[in-house]
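Researcher: Here's a chain I'd like modeled. Treat it as a single chain, no partners, no ligands.
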Amino acid sequence: MITNATDLLEQHIETLVDDATRWETLIADDILWELAYAPSIGHPARLSGREEVVRHLTWFRGAVENFRFFNLVIHPFEDPTGAVGEVEAEGIIKSTGRVYRQNYVVFLRVTGGKIVFIREYFDPVRAAQAMNLPIPI
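Model: Modeled as a single isolated chain. Structure tokens:
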């Protein structure tokens, strides 16, 4: 079993889009996922618990095609239960046919070998443009 945040963050990025079943084994039932800038494009600021997180990710996986992460750099914390990662991503938004390119910063905390906390930062302007939404001010 993977118990440190660095390895779980790497697994999170590797499986989030391409292997939902495997990804779900990485998260705790009481996971909290904060999406700091998501409200500016009409998405929730936080997802609480497995059901909410899985529902949102199911929507995301259905909204994009050919989505991939690349250039992952992980910065471990001195405490092995925390890490932060920087990663680039790109894909196509199905509803618009537009390319979606993004840079993410993801903070992650682990307890008992499971992801219990994620805080994700991304550029909402890039997301709005790809989804043909009003640009947040």
